[in-house]
Amino acid sequence: MTAIAPSLLQELASRLEWAGAKTFGAVGQTLGQTVTPAKDLRFGDYQCNGPLTLAKTLGQKPREVATALLAALDVADFCEAPTIDGPGFLNFRLKPDFLAQRLQTMQRGDRLGIPPVPHPQKIILDFSSPNIAKEMHVGHLRSTILGDCLARVLSFWGHEVLRLNHVGDWGTQFGMLITHLQTTHPAALDQADALALGDLVALYRAAKARFDEDAAFREASRLAVVDLQSGEPMARLAWQLLCEQSRREFQKIYDGLGVHLTERGESFYNPYLKAVVQDLAALGLLQEDQGAQCVFLEGFLNKEGQPLPLIVQKSDGGYNYATTDLAAVRYRVTQDRAQRLIYVTDAGQADHFAAVFQVAQRAGWLPPTVEAVHVPFGLVLGEDGKKFRTRSGDTVSLQSLLDEAIARAAADWQSRNPGQPVPEEVVRTMAMGAIKYADLSQNRTSNYVFSYDKMLSLQGNTAPYLLYAYVRVQGIGRKGDLDFAQLADGLFTFADETEITLAKHLVQLPEVLMAVASDLYPNRLCQYLFELSQKFNQFYDRLPVLAAPEPERASRLGLCDLTAKVLRQGLELLGISVLEKM
Ligand code: ARG
């Protein structure tokens, strides 16, 4: 018998695929895709409703299809005999012996029994990507948190992940800013640290206002962009200083969040933009539309039913966001040799990426062997259900938001521990964990309401609830004066329903991590960890652990230890550190 895959869902799928093909030929192979974790654990741990659909295709009775399938299906090495229920569902239940053995495998080594993938990919994850001279806002926070988590999960599987910060460090905003600074703050154009980022943001707003009103200013700004793009030394220096200043501010936020990125901003692709347009022309994909160079898109229509263009060169000769992204795709495929390109931005950019991917594909720059995906996310809302803003109506700066979370976590801690000095590291960890978890635990495609009270609550699907479950296990260790690392591989025995339920949940870790790596929805991992904490609490509230007789004591301590390990690993993949005490 071959080894059973770390993901039991995947193991069942491949066995069903094989048995389906053997029994029904090619149509039967699809049975593998119809197995899911059971919704109601009373009937089994996994279920398969494939026989129902297949019966229709074959014109047979579902129960007959199910019976024939079972004759060819061998899962006895890890499941009880499967049952046929209802109109023709298959139900699978894991064997306790197998469960015990799986838990032992998970206890060994430091990967919870999950080996890296046999064929790791080179993956580029483009995330965070704020714009220079503008403040980072909550939208960039979502991208940063989601991107960091996805990078962690993909790296855990052994993929080589390049975390790229595609900062907006190029373009018309610099022309405006430089022109404005020439009259208001000339020192900022040739001296480092002449401005604070807060000023820079205000100056950018003022420059934008002048740009919108004043034709002469617009012309001067345009010339400044030309200077910058042609490498004129004064313009270059001013640009560099402005970028460095923003970069330092961004770095404070990344440090606070514990997120690491490699900066490769839009300016990096400047030397490759001309070739994008030339090569599209040579391929016959380019057309002129009102003076602009564009590629007309397939399947994107305007209200009149005409195909929409993707502009790659504006009528004034300048390049844009799309040109840069096309150059970036080419670079990432040919130079970085990436096999998967992932972009984490707000859902508002979905059309942009669909258009860029389509043009890159038609140009042959994005071969079928390379997968390009946009990972969209929704808005962050205030508790009033409207776009998250300060009382004065400004967008909330990320720094003030992180500071506020820390202040609230500190106040919360103090209220539970009156009179004691506030442990700064604990409070920081709680606050950052709470912010990250509040974001990651939502289905990323929906908008979510940002609420300090909810995210810091010890009740519900929150970081503090999960961290507390971990702390509880550490407390057991302290109380029993034992070192979990020194526990011999537990021999697991299951006497109570809560033990089995917890054990079955623990062994699902690999399938959850596989799903996150393929579908890129971190909320699946959050949900898993939340349920793990609940199941652990049910088990621990009901059964004695330290006071239990052997062999139950060792088995239960093993369950506690594994719960803590899975929580710690899972939280780490979310970018959240655990606490030993709270
Ligand atoms: N700077 C952009 C923004 O703030 C996000 C860039 C995303 N990455 C990319 N390759 N387009 O919206």
Largest sheet: 5 strands, parallel
Shape: globular
The number of helical runs is 21
Please give the CATH architecture of the domain at 463-574: Orthogonal Bundle
Give the full name of the CATH homologous superfamily of the domain at 463-574.
Answer: Isoleucyl-tRNA Synthetase, Domain 1
- The SS-based structural class is alpha/beta
Please report the first level of CATH classification, the CATH class of the domain at 463-574.
Mainly Alpha
Look at the structure and give the mean pLDDT.
Answer: 93
Strand content: 5-15%
What does this protein look like?
The chain has 582 residues and is α/β, with parallel strands linked by helices. Among the domains are: 8-94, Arginyl tRNA synthetase N-terminal domain (Gyrase A, domain 2, 2-Layer Sandwich); 172-264, no CATH class; 463-574, Orthogonal Bundle (Isoleucyl-tRNA Synthetase, Domain 1). The protein is built from 21 helices and 14 strands. It has helices at 8-24, 26-29, 50-58, 62-72, 96-107, 138-156, 172-184, 197-213, 215-229, 233-257, 270-282, 321-334, 350-362, 398-416, 424-440, 452-455, 463-479, 497-506, 509-519, 523-542, 552-574; strands at 35-37, 46-48, 83-85, 89-92, 122-126, 160-165, 262-263, 287-289, 292-301, 307-313, 340-346, 371-377, 380-381, 448-449. Strand 11 (340-346), helix 13 and strand 12 form a beta-alpha-beta unit. Helix 1 (8-24) packs across helix 4 (62-72), helix 5 (96-107) crosses helix 18 and helix 12 (321-334) packs across helix 13. Residues 126, 129-131, 166, 168, 325, 328, 343, 345 line the site of arginine.
